[in-house]
Amino acid sequence: MIISKAQFKKDFQKKMLSLYSQEVEDSSNSEKYFALGYLVKDYISENWAKTARKYEKYGEKQVYYFSIEFLLGRLLGSNLLNLGIRNTVNDALTEMGIDLNDIEKIEVDPGLGNGGLGRLAACFMDSMASNGIPGHGNGIRYKYGLFQQKIVGGYQIELPENWLRDANVWEVRKPDHAVKVRFYGDAWMKPEEDGELTPIHTGYQEVLAVPYDTPLVGYENKTINTLRLWSAEIDSVDSGIPAGGSSFRNVLSYKREIESISEVLYPDDSNYEGRLLRLKQEYFFVSAGVQTILKQFKELGLPLSEFGEKVAIHINDTHPAVAIPELMRLLMDEEGLEWEEAWRITQATMSYTNHTIMSEALEKWPIDMMKQLLPRILLIIQEIDRRYRESFVLSTDINPSVIERTAIISDGYVKMAHLCIIGSHSINGVAKLHTELLKKQELKEFYQLYPYKFNNKTNGITHRRWLMLANPELAALLDKTIGDSWRRNPQDLKLLKRYKRDDNVQSEIQRIKLANKTRLAEYIKAKNGITVDPNSIFDIQVKRLHAYKRQLLNALHILYQYIELVTNPEFDMLPRTYIFGAKAAPGYYYAKEIIKFINALGEQVNNDPRVKDKIKVVFLENYGVTLAEMIIPAAEVSEQISTTTKEASGTSNMKFMMNGAITLATLDGANVEILEEVGAPNIVIFGMSEQEVLNYYRNGGYNSRELYNSDPRIKAVLDSLVNGFIKDIATEGRDIFMSLIDYNDEFFVLKDFDSYLAAQKRLEDLYKDRFTWNKMAIENISSSGVFSADVTVKQYAAGIWDTRMIER
Ligand code: BZD
Question: Which residues carry this modification: N6-(pyridoxal phosphate)lysine (predicted)?
Fold first, then answer.
């Protein structure tokens, strides 16, 4: 959109008056944020309505991305950017004596996701809108996002994340579009006189699902898609009140029960009640979404048989898997279709992405739980399962044990990944290696049955948030050097390659990195009270804390350097600042112990005069999207050190690369493709190969105690965990020691230790030669374009959803 500074100023002043009855000069930063936010939403509104009409007019196929998480990050900055008015607004505000950055900081970062999966959904939303793909999100409007993390005495403490305390300027509540979702009751098939069976569902509880819509603004293309998040509300006091009647107390507790459905992201699932609530959440947003999509489709006046040509529903991991039986239910019970036709439409509509091969993360629900909560849905799943099994009756080349293992219902559980594979036309992994592992290991039998359903879609990130917004100085340098076509076509970043030896560009890259490091150093000083030298190497690992991601390997290497520094007069190293950011799941005890270990290590190293400031260890609390936007542009080393085969893709690896960090990596997930793109001289690879890891797992692991006894470095490091050398980790040190030695080092931390040390040394040698290092940084930036989510969503659109892009 185009707007003059003068017009904007007028609009802003008017908005301030209408909202707060006061002048801009007299307003607080918070008031300025809300006035600006509501004004930007007004700017968005016109094209929001138009986009919907345009899609309708051209009869465009619509994609609905169903995800239990959307980790959007702050929206003021990205909306201004995508509307194309960020510079104008910034200049106008500056003239009014206002700093846009100060205002942007007021916005709460809505933490409606755990990590990579939720952030991927958000990147895809941005990229779909920016490429004119009619793609909308469907999820839950949690009242509380992922917990806020505080570090107290080195330990993680969790506090509620009340992100809605102040108004959310971006959402629009649409009570008139509310729908009802049914839980509990009894369901059965009633035989009719004509021999037909009619589905009956009685005694259910009805929950009102109220949608809140958030605009998803495309980059300078007038496209505004919609993220629809559902909130659970009590319908009317006489619907479904439990036995005991509608006394005030009963109504209140009933209201609380209903509202708890959209209360918190990922409730504790270590007990039965928690798990039941999770299943409720899944069906809640899925049913509301599918009902609405079907209703909108019917308004087009087309026959239901064409549903799959006009609608694609994408199932982001198995959490929305009940979309499959839910669409079947609506098509049969509400629309009167026969099973076969409903099934054809459902398969044509649904597609599924798998995000993990970790078997403990694969969802399965006890049949009894499903029977209690979703009786009609269970009947449909049982019928899908029965027909699946029956479809093999005549085939002689399929082993019955294969059918048993791939069935949806077995051992008393409903297996959600199996439901997704059987009920969808497409299943994809999120990086080449991950997809290959699905095909040859985890889902091998399904791959043999349905090879045509399997495909790879390597993850991507939006270069608008992760480069343009997070690193404006680098973005400006790119514009100046190679023109600004990369903004629309991120693969044009490769034009920068020509400048990898250019003195000017090299020194600019280095200057910008230093500026970003300095900014982060100031933040660290303010937050953690630690002084770090912006001229030291900034070595960063930020991601969820999980044993397979191996923050422990990083920490043990720091401990190794520390021991060397204080015991070996010969040892020398370049000064390095190790930065961590990681939340541990509240019930994940071991992960929390590693957080404590890192903090204790930092406390000691940072304050030991013998270290002479060669090492600083910083743990930044409450890692999330907003913090990532400051941390990632300041990184020089990107730690991507998961146990090979365990990280499905990773996406922070792509963000770091795009910002000129050098990746220190195992050949896991998308690191493999990063290596392919950037070339071996521009990345530092270490660790076991996929084959070695798989072989060890097949043979029950390796002998870590032997390694401990034979490698003096490992022995010194591990002993210092338990002999009091590192203070204040008596319990944690012992538990970590035991996990590595007594429990045989499940994630090969020690097995990869030697190789990791050597890689760290190579990295340091490379850093000593600034010309080489800057050249590597430039190679990384210029090779990162293929990891733009724009590329990824276009592959989904062409290969899975069969959607067109609308002309900009
Ligand atoms: O998904 C992550 C994978 O671990 C990454 O390798 C990958 O890059 C991203 C995106 O594909 N998985 C998750 O983030 N998973 C979850 O957050 C999650 C949430 C709820 C329940 C189970 C898993």
Answer: 655
- The catalytically annotated residue of 549, 596, 614, 751 is 549
**Residue 430, ligand 1, Cβ within 6 A:** yes
Q: Are 266 and 276 in contact (CB under 8 A)?
A: no
pLDDT tens, position by position, 124-183: 999 999 999 999 999 999 999 999 999 999 999 999 999 999 999 999 999 999 999 999
State ipTM.
Answer: 0.99
Task: Return the exposure string of 34-62: e unless at least 16 CB atoms fall within 10 Å of the residue's CB, then b.
Answer: bbbbbbbbebbeebbeebbebbeeeebbb
Partners of 140 in the beta sheet?
A: 230
Q: For the chain, count helices (H), then strands (E).
A: 32, 23
End-to-end CA distance of the chain: 13
Taking CA atoms, 443 is separated from 225, 356, 396, in Å, by 34, 11, 21
Architecture of domain 59-74+109-459+794-801: 3-Layer(aba) Sandwich (3.40)
The values of phi and psi at residue 11, to 5°, are -60, -40
Q: What's the 159 CA to ligand 1 centre distance in angstroms? A: 22
Cα–Cα distance measured from residue 716 to residue 726, given in angstroms and rounded to the nearest whole number: 12
Contact 274, 54 (CB under 8 A): no
Q: What is the pLDDT of residue 680?
A: 98
> Which of the listed residues 68, 112, 117 should we mutate to test ligand 1's pocket, taking the one with most ligand atoms within 8 A of CB?
117
CATH superfamily of domain region 463-787 = Glycogen Phosphorylase B; (3.40.50.2000)
Residue-wise pLDDT for 247-267, tens only, equals 787 889 999 999 999 999 985
Residue nearest to atom 5 of ligand 1 (CA): 650
Residue 650 near ligand 1, beta carbon < 6 Å = yes
Domain with CATH 3.40.50.2000 in the chain: 59-74+109-459+794-801, 463-787
